Predict the 3D structure of the following.
Amino acid sequence: MIETNPLIAMTAYLLAIATAALLLRSVPRFTRQLEHSGESRFAGIDGLRGYLAFGVFVHHSIITWIFLQTGVIDFPPSNFYSQLGQGSVALFFMITGFLFWDRLLTHGRQHDWLAFAVSRLFRLYPLYLPLMLTVFACVFYLQDWELKDSGTQLIGQTLAWLIFDRPDVNQYQQTGMLISNVTWTLGYEVFFYLALPLAAMVFIYRGGWMQTVLCLIGIYTLYQVVGWEHSLKKHFLASFLGGIAAAYWIRRPQWVAWSLSPLAGIIALLALAIAFTAFNRAFNLGALLLLSLFFVIVASGNTLFGALRPRSIRWLGEISYSTYLLHGFVLWVLVQRLPPILHLDARQAWVFLPLMAACSCLLIIIGSLTYLYIEKPGINAGKKTLHWLRQNRKPGKELPEETAQQR
């Protein structure tokens, strides 16, 4: 059965990696971009991102297959396919927690909060806004451009989508399924970003007890406000703690030295394998501990016997946000909308599997293009905006060199 056969995932990954390798060979601009990015301090994490983002695509592909068969949207029966989605998201949250907490520990009170805010804004929205506009356009196209909701309701729906909620647009049922509802994770990311200054004041800057109490109240208030429509789940937020723990782990030279050993690489892979096969959900204590163990070893610089190092994998990591954000729409177009036009039945394996293979390749091509022509210009626009803000605030002050925080 497709929903339990791991060879489907392996084939999809091979197609994606081969597509990335071919693009780097045939398009010099992609190669130059990868060389310009260079190998960061956490090169293994850059490679890990590529595996994770594509894993979420495979997860949603299997969910789409189940939906086509049953009409029900549900988790795959296979632990492996279920964890390709949930486990990958948990590890993404760990990456976020690790990178930003590490910067706080490194810079302390010198942390550039203005650069942090601007970079996050220009990292999330330049690609998200065109995708959101595309979703709205598709909805109205499918409804023959008929306005079924009032203008006030439509404005409310637009504002909700702008903060990564996914209400039905113009009474089109399950609008969020056009993008596989992937933006739910961005709500958690936004909460983490907003709570980070308050958490820093509690755990790093360490003021008086009154400051601590006020900051904790502020964090709780943000927790309620950000989760206003769909309450944030505490066990999902616990994933960030695995990344924060890794930020402390890498500051122990003896622990890092052990993490770089072949034995640690074997332990990391075993922990990942157990988490992805013995658990059906990632956000419980056992799975999170295993994933955290895996992550701290990778964060320490272990490339898992070179699996995180190839150029093609690093490129998949470079375009991981595009892959993550766009894969649901690519799936919807190719697997749900295209077959009826071609008079094909995607419920048949011989139709679905070639379409999934096509999605695997096309997603990497589209993601590479959107990264180069939308994401990267957006990041650069953020740097220019930051420079403009600083010039207006302190005339004559030069913009500091680019830091990893801009990425």
User: Anything to note?
Assistant: Residues 2-406 form one domain. The chain has one domain: 2-406.
